[in-house]
Amino acid sequence: VTHSIPACIGSMTINSKQLDNESPVSIFAVNKCYDTVQDGTFFDGSGFAALVREGYKVRSDVNITLEFRTTAVHGVLLGVSSAKVDAIGLEIVHGKVLFHVNNGAGRITAAYEPRGTNSLCDGKWHKLQANKSKHHISLTIDGNLVHTDNPYIQSTSADTNNPIYVGGYPADVKQNCLTSKSSFRGCLRNLVLTKGQHTELFDFSRSFDLRGVFPHSCPGAEH
């Protein structure tokens, strides 16, 4: 067995002596246990999850759906970026959700701003759908659709062959369609990317790089 167990372990004794797990000599990818737990993946605000090491090709069309829960007003949700300008990005900035796309001719953005006191950063689950279809882009939050005009109608393909970074990204990795460097703090679940008839549900426990991310549960109330 080479992978860790998704569980809580407590009151461990060896030779009748209880181990002190409050001050370990070293620790890696171990989080608190929670009194109440929800399905999803917890991001502690310090890191990211990296998916598809061999590279994800956005090209002309992609549909992204996910659910998020946070109390922070800033945070990276997802980015795929080439070394050139072609890229897509999803982020929360000042409590607004932004979906950026650059097909090579320039960045365009669909922005969703909650009305009045309806905050997206209220610690409740919100459903997000971001759609790129050639030069058209749209963003739907909790059933509310926004889309934006794209002056670059001749440019239709985001030519990426790069990992998908979720919740943040490493300092040495360029992200042309993200303005924030703030790692996401909160919970994500049900990340699905669809291209045509091909739908892929991403399991964060299969990330090739995972920092500050705990893939098997979200705290309902921290203990």
Observed structural traits:
Jelly Rolls; 223 residues; Neurexin-related_CASP; ConA-like_dom_sf; mainly beta; LAMA1 protein; 50% strand; Laminin_G
- % residues in beta strands: over 45%
Output the number of helix runs: 0
- Mean pLDDT across every amino acid position: 92
Classified by CATH, the class is Mainly Beta
Terminal residue distance: 29 Å
The CATH topology assignment is: Jelly Rolls
Q: What helical percentage do the residues reach?
A: under 10%
Element-by-element helix/strand order = EEEEEEEEEEEEEEEEE
The tally of domains stands at 1
Secondary structure: number of strands:
17
Looking at the structure, what is the overall shape?
Answer: globular
Task: List low-confidence stretches.
Answer: none
* CATH architecture descriptor: Sandwich
Biggest sheet architecture: 13 strands, antiparallel
Oligomer: single chain
Rg over C-alpha atoms, rounded to the nearest angstrom? 19 Å
Determine the structural class based on helices, strands and strand pairing: mainly beta
